[in-house]
Design brief:
Blueprint lengths: L1 E3 L11 E5 L2 E6 L12 H7 L3 E7 L1 H10 L10 E5 L2 H4 L5 H15 L5 E6 L1 H5 L4 H12 L4 E6 L9 H13 L11 H4 L2 E5 L4 H13 L5 E4 L14 E5 L5 H9 L3 E2 L7 H15 L4 H26 L3 E4 L6 H10 L4 E7 L8 H6 L6 E4 L2 H11 L3 E4 L1 H9 L4 E3 L2 H4 L8 H19 L1
Parallel strand pairs: 3-14, 4-5, 4-6, 6-7, 8-9, 8-10, 10-11, 12-13, 12-15, 13-14, 15-16
Antiparallel strand pairs: 1-5, 2-3
Helix pairs in contact: 7-10, 11-12, 12-18
Bound molecules: iron/sulfur cluster (SF4).
Length: about 450
Amino acid sequence: MSAVISIHPEHELDGHLVKGSDHQIRQERGQREVFCGLTGIIWLHRKIQDAFFLVVGSRTCAHLIQSAAGVMIFAEPRFGTAIIDDRDLSGLADANEELDRVVGQLLKRRKDIKTLFLVGSCPSEVIKLDLSRAAQRLNTQFNPHVKVLNYSGSGIETTFTQGEDACLSSIVESLPQIGHLKESTSKTNAKKLLVVGTLADVVEDQMQRIFKDMGLENVEFFPGRNSQNSPTIDQNTVYLLAQPFLADTAKRIEDKGATRLAAPFPLGAKGTEAWFKAVAQEFNINETVFERAITAPRQRAQIAIAKYKKFLDQKKIFFFPDSQLEIPLARFLSQELGMTLTEVGVPYVHRQHLAQELEMLPKNTVIVEGQHVDLQLDRCENAQPDLVVCGLGLANPLEAKGYTTKWSIELVFTPIQGFDQAGDLAELFSRPLIRKEKIAA
Ligand code: SF4
């Protein structure tokens, strides 16, 4: 194994209809064209600024991370790959000893690291390297200076955004039970709000300002910018999801006594208003105070969105499954921009977390959970959409066939949540269509 600083997993996974909400959600199994969960490191390492993500994987894994996060080459990166090489694979070297050596070197050189994530990959799973035991072992050596956690980003187990879910879930699991905390219980007695899901700092700051204007002070965001400021989660915690792909994290948070606040996701003016409204109702915020807090940002969002409606109204859009953001995005594009949804492909549909989003979709929206890429490409061809949202692996072939595409990965890297980002979100979908019009003119 050597210290160095993506791929599209193809799993054989057939199709039947399942009733979900008022929509027929078709389940499909077949070849998938999605990124693996390692991709989450790209936005997680930017957010948690004292953490380091050590992928235990192959050169392919290293190339994925390096190229996807290529903008970091001028800074000390907070991610790297411990390459599993031939000696590890053939059993000539003890992979655990090699891993301990690599971690020792890394932590000796990088005193700024406070949390180290050992991130599993397809190769580490194939050689059955037990990273949870490795994390326990390394914790005895480096904790309390450095907390060592582990999760899997492997393409065998995870897709794209599930990497974030696995990472946050590992953090929640590591939090002490409230009864073991030394702090005064007064800190935990007041009902508090925990916003869950990685948000860009600028979005977090805007949301925090609106919560403050609503009179709410006891609000925490998870993950935070500093891994040492872990949230306290107990029965007084009401949590609100900011991202739709956090099923395991949500379950772990609930295991610690917290309650989920049901809401749509904060995309677009309407989604964001409903998201804040759910909080206002839960915390008994006066209607006048709530309206005062959101009127100006909501108006800014509505004005910004209106600029793009002329490009998107009545245009047909087709979603290939990738990020799990597809249903909230489809709701925003149909509800606020007048787009026609030809098909909404989603890797997984969490019926509970997405219940309110599903209710806001137009009746008879075609939702496909899972993927059989060949069948889906045929349906895309029949639908002849104006815009296709898909992963990088499909974008170029589709462009070559004359389709206009939008990379779904861009929707995860770009700040799109909240009122002040609603116009940017609409612009992301308008830009390829405007460009195509200009080229044709
Ligand atoms: S984890 Fe698996 S799918 Fe992801 S880059 Fe590594 S080998 Fe490829």
